[in-house]
Amino acid sequence: MSLIDSTISKRLIFAIALTAITLVAEVIGGIWSNSLALLSDAGHVFLDLFALLLSLGAIKLAAQPSSDQHSYGLHRAEVLASLINGLTVFLLALGILYEGSKRFISPEEVKTAPMLIIAVLGLIANLMAAKALHGHSHDDLNVRSAFLHVLGDAAASVGVIAGAILMRYTGWYQADPLISIAIGLLILVGAGRLLREATHILMEGVPRGLSVDQVAERMRAIEGVLDVHHLNLWAVCSHIFALSAHIEIEPAYDGLRSQLLQRIEHELQHSFHITHTTIQVDCSACNGGPLIKDLSHTERNSSSCGHVHT
């Protein structure tokens, strides 16, 4: 593991510890104060805690070597965990919305003092975690995602604080289920986004924010490249993007293929965070081919399977 990854890991562990303490405090405080809003925020904190654990896990998995059984390593474990977490939190959000609607019809008294204290402590913990992650959030997509999760939870904590103050001075206890419903909807959106992104990666989709045409145009703009075709672009996991393509080069660059490939790889990594590339140069069999080549099923030779079918 590199020095940078080690530093990021330590900051993530610090943020995880703070978030875990906040989760336990909000569950206990929510039961003690009878605040559904505080319990709902605990559900949102759980989503953030899982996101932080995924970010830390992604760094640990990236340090594991590839094997003959997993040529890409174990990076996809992050995506599978995201899918399971998204399904779990989606059901949690539905439960919060159900309980919130019931309590809105029949509001219950809430102990606002402990609710306010726990919410303020949660906000402080979220801000401390955000500060720890902020330094690396601009350079690392993985850390940026975790940083945004923590900020979202800080915003939810502000909502709980506002609700506690409102109920303390007005006695309008319907504010508690209203806040819980709002947080439930926030969790529902987050879970839906998590499920969509995990499914998209598992389906070998183009990484979010990129397009095949955009990447191809940038490659064609590099001096020496005539055309690009048979381009495939996908995500191994949320922070590792891969590309394979055929390129046609100008005859004058035939003896400079290594330098040209280095320039292309540098441009792809710098502009699109594409770090895993397989580029075939001057493929005469497919010159002028389509940018995206359709895949088709072919009959498999029985001898290639290691045994004979009878």
Please tag this protein with its features:
8 helices, mainly alpha, three-stranded mixed beta sheet, single chain, 310 residues
Residues in helices, as a percent range: 55-70%
Global geometry: elongated
User: How many runs of DSSP E, i.e. beta strands?
Assistant: 3
The end-to-end distance, rounded to whole angstroms, is: 50 Å
Please provide a written account of the structure.
63% of the residues lie in helices and 10% in strands. It contains 8 helices and 3 strands; from the N terminus they run H-H-H-H-H-H-H-E-E-H-E. The protein has helices spanning 3-33, 36-62, 76-105, 112-134, 141-170, 175-202, 212-220, 257-272; strands spanning 225-237, 240-249, 274-281. The protein has a 3-stranded mixed β-sheet. Strand 1 and strand 2 (240-249) form a beta hairpin.
Task: Provide a brief overview of the structure.
The chain is mostly helical. It is built from 8 helices and 3 strands. Helix 4 (112-134) runs antiparallel to helix 5 (141-170).
Give a topology summary.
Blueprint: H1 3-33, H2 36-62, H3 76-105, H4 112-134, H5 141-170, H6 175-202, H7 212-220, E1 225-237, E2 240-249, H8 257-272, E3 274-281
